Amino acid sequence: MNKITDRTFTGEEFVSHRDDSVIICRCEEISKGEIRRAVYDGMRTMSEVKRYVRAGMGLCQGQTCSRLVKNIIAKELGLKPGEVEIPTPRSPARPVSMEIYANDGMKK
Q1: Which structural domain, as residue segments, surrounds residue 24?
Q2: How many C-beta atoms surround the C-beta of residue 25 within 10 A?
Q3: For the segment 49-84, what is each residue's pLDDT rounded down to a tens digit?
């Protein structure tokens, strides 16, 4: 069975580590323990962990923490970091007024 696609894979019982309180995602204040717990709760990809605990959804959009999150997921699943699926990058969506589009940065 593939550990990534088999949703029934639980591995061993979740055991906290001494360093679980270390903050991995500073923007959203997500700790290593929260990421590890997400994996034990069934999240197998970075996209799933991102949606589950919001790691990588802050101002930096994962520029600071994505590599750390990927390594934690890989370690918990017994995989190499390259085997962990990365999320599709998307820019943050914010409403933009039509006035800004109309001006288009051109001087009158």
Answers
A1: 1-88
A2: 25
A3: 999 999 998 888 888 999 999 999 999 999 999 999
Beta carbons of 7 and 42 less than 8 angstroms apart: yes
The count of residues in the chain is: 108
Residue 34: predicted pLDDT: 97
- Nearest-angstrom CA–CA distance, 98 and 90: 22
Q: What is the pTM of this model?
A: 0.72
Task: With respect to residue 30, please indicate whether it lies within any of the assigned structural domains.
Answer: yes
d(CA 40, CA 93): 31
Distances (CA, A) of 4 to 21, 72, 78, 87, 108: 26, 14, 10, 15, 57
**Token pair for 89:** 């990058």
What CATH number is given to the structural domain containing 49? 1.10.10.1100
Give the span between the Cα atoms of 13 and 101, in whole angstroms.
54
Does 71 fall in a domain? Answer: yes
Tally of domains in the chain: 1
